[in-house]
Amino acid sequence: MYKLTKFILTDLLQNWIIHLFALFFLFVIMGIFSLEGQEDKALVSVLSLVLLVVPMLVMIFSTIYYYNMSDFVSLMLAQPVQRGQVLGSLLIGLGLVFSLVVAIGLGYALWWLHWSSAAWSLLLVALALVWVFVSMAIFAGVVAKDKARGMGLSLLIWAYFILVFDGVVLLLMYNFSDYPIEKVVLMITFLNPVDLGRVLVLMRTEAAALMGYSGAVFKHFFESTWSTIVALMALLVWVILPLLLSLRLFRHKNL
């Protein structure tokens, strides 16, 4: 597994697209902080960019990479290598490379321009989302044998977590606005890693004061250390669950 992971890491680091992703984050974030007058507002803008772009780039690139490595995977499975080791190597390789991209592009820019507890939380959330969506991309690749269907499934997963889920929550809040459903919405947030990451960061900025009573409920929950740990554990579950499902399907898949 170590040799497989090392090969995948070497192959990915030689890909110029990976370096382009890091430069993209670095220069765009520097541009946002240059244009925004207030650092907290700039951080919220960077948060919106990260939550939109990181899942999309990770999902698309990881899914394409999985299908491009199909011949290599078939060759490895002809050797005395367990299928779980192959999937684990893909997850670790892609996760480490994209974590490096985020650490350089996002982490360096935040450290240089505006380092705070909110910026630290944003970096942690971005790194967590990298592993979550790499795991989901592998799941999409395992489920769909055809590359076109796999890409379509990846985009559907991305659209659900970025667009559809928020629309469902807003519809729920609108229809039940006369009832105290803030705690219910808080629990529903754990069903979406993107929304969970957004709340974790916003609760450490001045934007939390603009969320009214809902913001007070969320801030009261997430201001304690154990609640933050629970949220991070929930993100870890979002990494492990798709991987376990992928492994179960991959073990019985005919390549």
Strand and helix map with partners:
Elements lengths: L1 H12 L2 H20 L3 H30 L1 H8 L5 H31 L3 H27 L3 H29 L6 H8 L3 H10 L9 H11 L2 H27 L4
Helix pairs in contact: 1-5, 2-3, 2-5, 3-6, 3-7, 3-9, 5-6, 5-11, 6-7, 6-9, 6-11, 9-11
Structure description:
The chain has one domain. Helix 1 packs across helix 5 (83-113), helix 2 packs parallel to helix 5 and helix 6 (117-143) packs across helix 7. It has 11 helices and no strands. The protein is 84% helix and 0% strand. It comes from Echinicola rosea.
Q: How would you summarize this macromolecular structure in one to three sentences?
A:
Helix content is 84%, strand content 0%. The chain is mainly alpha-helical and 255 residues long. The protein has helices spanning 2-13, 16-35, 39-68, 70-77, 83-113, 117-143, 147-175, 182-189, 193-202, 212-222, 225-251.
Question: What keyword list fits this structure?
Answer:
255 residues; mainly alpha; 84% helix; transmembrane; Cu-processing system permease protein; transmembrane helix
